Structure formats: C-alpha cells, structure tokens
Records
---
Amino acid sequence: MSSSTLDSTFAALADPTRREILVRLASGEASVKELAEPFQMSLPGVSKHLKVLERAGLISRGRVAQSRPCRLEAQPLKEAADWVEHYRRFWEEGLDRLEDYLQEIQRAGEGGGGR
Amino acid sequence: MAAGGDPRPGELVVTRDFDAPRELVFRAWTEPERVRRWWGPEGFTMPYCDIDLRPGGTFLRCMRSPGGLDFWVTGVFREIVAPELLVFTDSFADKEGNVVPPTRYGAGSGMPLERLVTVTFEELAGSTRVTVRHAGLPSGEDRDLVRHGWAGGLESLSGYLSGAS
C-alpha cells in the first residue's frame, strides 16, 4: 500500500462519524438512507462521508440497485492498523530519500566534505 | 548504545549504510534546512521544521502528504552525542507544538502518546551506518489493539467502539 493510500485511509478514519458508519457496515450492507438514520444527518451529508470512505477503499458501493448499498472493505483497515509496518515504510522511504540527498549534495560539493 | 539485537514487540529497527562521512549524515538529521530535504515518505514535503538541538530541547515538524494532508510531529531530545547518537521522543502535535492524542490523526487508542526513537551513526570504512530504533509502537500482536482494536478487523473494531462509547 502506497503512502498516499495509507494517507487517505487515516484521513478517512480520523472522523468519528465515518468510524461509526464502518461499525454499522460491519454488521452488513446498508443503503445511504439506512446509514443516515442513526446520525440524524441529511442524505447529502452522509453521501459526503461515504465518498471519502469509498475513495479510501474502505467501502464499496453496489452498482445494481438504485439504493447502491454500501459494503465494508476490511483490507485497508487491517493494513492501516499495523503501525510497525507503517513506520517501517516511513523510515525506509525516508532513508531512501536521505541517500539521494547525500549523493546529490556530495556531487555538488554542498556537503563541505562533511565538516 | 548497541545498534544490534532483535527488535522487541512494538519496536522497529531499520538499518542503512550511507556512502557519506558521518558528520555530514549527522548534520542531515539535525539541521532543519537539511532535514526538510529528505524527511518522510516519498512525495512528502516539509513546510515547517524547527529544531532546538540540545538535551531537553524540542523539535516541531510539519509533514505534508502528497494529498495535502498536514501531519505535525513534535518531540524532545533526550540524548545527543554528535555525531554518534540521537535519542528523541516522537509525538503527534498541533501546529503550536502541543502534543495531541494519536487518535486525532486517525490512529487507534492503542498508540501511546509518545514513542521513543534512538538513532545511532557508526563509522564504517568509508561509509556511515545509521540504525533507527523506533520503540513504543503498537505491534498488532497480543495487545488490546488486536483483541479490541483495528488490527483485528471490523468485528473487533465494532466491539472496541461500542465499548468505548
């Protein structure tokens, strides 16, 4: 999973309403209307949250019925939960960039020979 | 400070050799203008970086994701032995530098407020070995996080959230 995917997963999960929506979907598919009820929220309001969740790959929407029922996709959540992996990627990618940076400034003589 | 050893649960060890003098590598970790050039995952930028490099001194960084999301991180330097060793805490923050709970950035409640990062810089023949030990991470193993949290998937997330409310 790329950092930008992980990014959108965390952004999506940062909101309590969206977490509640995921919890609701854990017990089965639901329509937008069914999801809106417990939150006393307008349909467009819920739709907005659903779009964020869908972009993050946390839910999918049915294509057939008019209600386009929402379904949970658990995989991104599992991946986001593994913080050791998250930080491993964080440091590995950072150290890749550090390697490039050190090469670049040494080529340019910007490093001053390390003094 | 031994760089080797197996990581403990919740601890991460990453090692990398750099074809550069140790002093330069250490400066790349401690001078804001250098830190900003490389810190963070691919595609991230760092619009803000302040480092007060002394024991007890703090740092504050803002990492901006490719999607434009800002992650503020702060910490305190616990130990500084230039150019050999850096020990600092690592916490999520707001832009004023106040520590905020990791849940603010979408992490589960199993993530502690503060993690500890130990970085050693060893001189090898013509290169520098950097070892990052990152402790205090929820490892997703035999913890509440698995039983009640996000790592166990949605059923346990559901239980966790209803238990928390």
Note: Chain A touches chain B through 50 residues (CB under 8 Å).
---
Amino acid sequence: MSEQMKEMTYKDAVKLAMVEEMRKDENVFLMGEDVGLYGGAFGVSVGMLEEFGEERVRDTPISEAAIAGAAAGAAVTGMRPIAEIMFMDFTTIAMDSLVNQAAKMRYMFGGKAKVPMVLRAPGGSGTGAAAQHSQSLEAWFCHVPGLKVVVPGTAADAKGLLKAAIRDDNPVVFVEQKTLYKVKGSVPIDDEFIIPLGKGEIKKEGEDVTIISYGRMLPRVLKVAEELEEEGISVEVLDPRTLVPLDKELIINSVKKTGRAILVNEACKTGGYLGEIASVISESEAFDYLDAPIIRLAGLDVPIPYNPELESAVVPSEKQIRDAVFKVLNR
Amino acid sequence: MIDISKETILEMYKRMNEARAFEEKVSYFFARGMVHGTTHLSIGQEASSVGACMALNNDDLITSTHRGHSQVIGKGIDLNKMMAELLGKYTGYCKGKGGSMHIADVDAGNLGANGVVGGGHGIAVGAALTQQMKKTGKVVLCFFGDGASNEGSFHEALNLASVWKLPVIFYCENNLYGMSVPQNKAMNIKNIADRAKSYGIPGHIIDGNNAVEVYNRTKEIAKYVREGNGPVLIESKTYRWLGHSKSDAQIYRSKEEVEEWKSKCPIKQLRNYIIENKISTEEELDKIENNARESIEKAVEFANNSPNPPIETITEDVYA
C-alpha cells in the first residue's frame, strides 16, 4: 500500500475510485438517476460530468429496471458499467434484472458469459427518510448465487473495494452507507490501491471478545471498543467488508482466539446476514472455542419509522453493544 | 422493396424447416417423457422468427425468449449443440445447465433465451448501448411476445432506448395469447405497434407468417436503426399452433381457430412463393426439407452420444 494518504470523505473516496477507473479504462462508465449535472442524489458524482462528458456519465430516466437491465446488457457485451440506484430501497424495482438476469447469465450459459457490472446503492437509516428510503437489504442479494455483495465501512475501504468491484468480472452490489458519506478518513491516493473482494480486516485487535460488524455500525462498534479498552476489556473488531464472498478464515481465526462473538449490523434481524455469520462460526472449528453463546445485535423487525427517537431506537445502540460485551464476559 | 437473393431465400427456407423439424422432434420427445423439464414450442411462428434474424447481419445481436427455438435457429446455430442442450448434455451450448429456456451463444451474438417474460428488454437496451458507445455499427434485435409488452420492463426499455437513440429493434411476436389469456383480455388495443407512439419511435405491423415480408421489412427497418435513427417497434402478427408449454390442454381456444391459422402455414407460404416466382424447384425444396430432417436426426444422435455434465461441474461458473 502506498504511504501517500489524503483525508477525504467516504463520498469523495467513492468518487475517486470511479474517476480513477474511468481514466484507466474507457469501458467503465456511470449511469443512473441524476448522476450527471446534479451529481447524484447524495452528490457522489459531482464534477464527473465535467471531466467525462454525457457519454460516460449518463443521466437516466427514473427507470430502475431498465438501469439494471441495461447495465447487465452492456456488461455482457463488453462494457464495465457502474449503475447507481438512488436508494437501496429502489433496487426492488431492479430485481429481475439483477437476480434473474445478471446473477445467472454466466452459470445458465455454461460459463460462456461474464457480467462485469457494479450496482451502487446507498442503504441504511438515520436520515429521517422513513420506511421506503432507509432499508438495509444486503441479505437479499447475499442469497443470490452469482452476485457479490460489498458494504464498505470506511472511506479507504470504499475506495479500495469499489475499484476492485469495477475490475471484477461479476455483478457486484456495492452498498454505500448514507450516514457515512460525510465521514472523513485517511485514504491512499495510489491509483492502484485495491482491496480484494473477500478480504475482511481486523479494525482493532483484541483478546477478550470479537465483535463482527460492517457498514454504518462499524464506527459505533469501534467507539465502544475504544472505551472498553480503557476499562480493561480488550475487544477485537472485525469488518468482513465483503459479505459475498465472505472472509470465513478471518472470522474463524478471530473467534478461536477470543472465544466470544458478538455480531452487529443495522439490518433487521430475521433472515439477516448476521444469522449467516453466526452459522459460519457454529459450523467451524471455532465453535469448540466458544465460551459464550453468539449474540446478534441487529435492527428491529420493523419498517424504519420516521420520528427521530423511534428511528434511532431501531438500530443497535452503543449501550446495547456494551451490554452485550458484558454479557458474553459474564460481568 | 428489397431484392431478396435466391441464396438468402433458400437459406431462410432451410432454417425454417430446421426449426420446424427441431421442434417436432422435441415435441415427440416430450410427449413420451424422454426429456426433462418443460418446453415452449414456436411451431407456426417460423417465418416471424427466422425471417427477422435472416434480415440482420451475421454479427448483429439478438435477445431471445422462452419460445426461442426458431429465433436462435434463425440466427444461425449449431443444431448438434442445441439439441444436446435440450437433452441436458455436457456438449450443449450451456453445458447442460441452461436447457430449452436459456440457449445462448454470446460470442455469436445470441445474448440468450430468457425464462422471464420481458427479461430481455433491459439486456437488449444495454447491448445496444455498447454498440453505440463502441461505434460498432451493429444493431440488437430484442424478441418478445404480446404478453411481455404488458410488463413494466417493456415501458422502461423502450423509453430509455428512445431517449438515448439506441440501435435496437423491439420485435414483438404477437401470437395472440399470453399463455391462456387472449390479447383482448390483456390490453385494450388491437395493435401493439401503436404503443411505439408514446415513446416517439416508429411502430410497424408486419405479417409474421409471410417470411418474405418479414425479411424485407425487418431489413429495411434494421437499416434505419443502423443509421442512428433510434429504436423501432415491430409487431409481427403470428400464431403458435401448439399449446403454451407441454402441459397445455388448450381449452381457451377453438380447434377451428387453430385450423384457420394452420392454413396460413409460414413454411407452405414461403414454398409457394418460391415456386410461383420460379426461384427454385419442387425437387430442390424437397431436398432442403429432407436435409433439415436429417440434420435434426444427426443432432439427436450427437446429443444421445454425448455425456452428461460431470457432477463436479455443478459448482462451476457461478462466478467468473
């Protein structure tokens, strides 16, 4: 990794990844609703139209099915499209294109096609946008063989993972985090800084308990972990970063080391990806090392409510994370 | 009027006969439970499908449908590999993993049959975008049926292709039924081509049972699309003689109606045209028909002698 770092927001890191890849490869282009002059609903692509022109930064009609379908069709014929879906909630309208088409083409055509597309979509609550603009639907996509699913939790990861996603020959669902867009981090400016898909990272080393978390909950978990460190509890924080493929080895080794696992995300609990991670641990040799049951801290099984107090109470709080740590440590 | 060459018209006749013979064989297999799954036959629609594909350049692209055998044979395909795929063999186009509904040959411009009604619309738009951005001069022909024109994807795709002026022909094979539901119960218009108006693109109606008309009109329209004028909607009026799929008892239509359409047999019509215009002789046409049947028999032999996919391939090709 390059030593050259720059402070920038998560949002600008996403943009930097796109800009660098578009400069390197003329087959890469961006399309989506309001991504051109407007710069995207969250301003991620501000300035890109000026550099690359309307041919490669394409405003689309409000047509999520066509956006995802066209991305699949362009990808299978030699382009590397990046399709932005304005809110992750609207991927529901693009589902056939993604799930029945893009994800399956390679397999059902006997390996004679590749679909190198990235579908970027911001997920998560915390913006007061209520039930149809706040969901964390990553588990749906994880359930579809043929798709890769990435959820970056830091600015540097956003850059490195998006570059890897653009260069990947498979359809990748890249779940950005709305509430992290303005969070700054130190980002390598090396234009070959790539984080391979399927590689998690230990964000903080620890001995007593492993907390596995990703996306918006990651900074919250890290804050609690730092506080607990001062109280003499050593928490290891592991971010899988990519949900499919999942870095099982990193997870298993960490849990073997600490003997305790807490899993935290903001998506609702039932049918969520934390259940998958818990099963990976249970089915591995790490199970024999567990000194306490695995705890899942996930969002409530409710649509995201509007009222700010209700909204923030849907997702795991710092207190709940602390309490879970004490619980697994029997304190 | 485009002047259709003797060579082209005989090739079209050959492919239509191959499509008919292929599907008759598949129908025979299904009736006897000799193949797995289901199939959607296009007998009666050969002129519509083959004629459209023949009007394209070899390197143009198509997206096909669940009722796609005539379409992909029209595009030009290796019948051995196609029959092998129907029988689930490793030598098939998709190594036995796709079957009837997913025949694809991406390198040859067939971007795949599709099990989802309307599933090819977006893919065709994206493929056309590639041609526009890379300035290849190729066009994409998107096959779909009357039923698919009621899907949301139809609207989104035609609108997007229109605003981006993409080189795509939306080719609706209107066979009058979406499974069992007749067109007049599924839409309040008679001509699907009328829908083109609302996208600001031309809509054309053609007689889908008349191969020469299909060829000439599609050729002309492909030229218009290739010149950068944006997409066109073609409605090819035709009819499927058999049921929707293998399990269809066809209680929704009369025998008389089916017989009436059988009297408009696209293959017989083309044969008459060839003879009347002295393009070829009865003997030569008989030979083409016999060769088509022989090709299918050979394809069956090839498929029967082919291995099943090794079980270890089950997890291959999920990801590139």
Note: The mean pLDDT of chain A is 97.
